[in-house]
Amino acid sequence: MRGWLIYDRSDAERNSAFIDWFLEESHSLNIDLQLVYTENLQVTLHNGQVSVHTKEKQHIPDFSIVRTIDPLLTAQLEQAGIACFNNAEIAALANDKIKTHLELTKLDIPMVNMHFQTNAPLPQPPIAFPFVLKTSNGRGGKEVHLVETEAQYQDLQNHYADQSILMQQLAPTPGKDVRVFVIGKEIIAAVLRSSERDFRANYSLGGSASLYALNLEEKLLVQRIVDHYDFGFVGIDFLFDENGSFLFNEIEDVVGSRTLSKVSDVNIVRLYLEFIQKRMEDTRCTQ
């Protein structure tokens, strides 16, 4: 079984240890996994057929693990006959926060009240201060702002005038959230992230992390989402309401595992590769 591990070159440099982990585990599972940079990928359309190749003329893989945020690239790979993890549908969903929230309301998933802005800036804030403003396609806690004054609001409106943004109520417990790690239809583990200094709980922004035991109500809520989508490997993030119950926040497509690795001995990479291996074998058996 042959696969590509796809990264932007700059992201690959920052994630070299994670990449090595993938390559080591794939070797032990007899998977021929090769690191491929997006900068070296070329997509062509010839006689009505889409094809993908690299500048190095590497063999076309059976599957790709897409570790870059580019739903269009994933869709092109799939049209060329390459199975992708995560698939293009999940990449498009998770990397558009407005779309994610709209879709999950169909599953009756609780979330904070929010306002979407997809065209002209609004002269006045649509919700009361303080609130959170973020771009629809930001990730990792970036392009997320706590808005407390009219001046801040106007500055951010000007800064993001050409982007789709969300404005949402500040959760009752700012600086605290839970990331649930999911592979396929299975909940693997959950991590509580918290920060005493920032309303954002992201570990990459200096927050702390601890293993979190989901209660039955939380598991059922997460499973409602998981059962509805064809996930590969994602992180589903939740805030807390005033009673300590989950409020959906976002789905992370290109999810990392630094927090999970810090607080547990879960080999998330091997579990992911085993999931892909089984999925590919099952697909072959049905063809």
TrEMBL record:
Entry GO terms, CC: cytoplasm
ATP-binding in keyword set: yes
One family name in Pfam for this protein: RimK
Regions crossing the membrane: none
Gene Ontology biological process terms, A to Z: SOS response
GO MF entry, a single one: ATP binding
Residue ranges of every copy of the ATP-grasp domain listed in the record: 101-277
Protein name as it appears in the record: ATP-grasp domain-containing protein
Presence of the UniProt keyword Kinase in the record: no
Family matches, as InterPro entries: ATP-grasp, ATP-grasp_RimK-type
Annotated keywords: ATP-binding, Nucleotide-binding
Recorded superkingdom: Bacteria
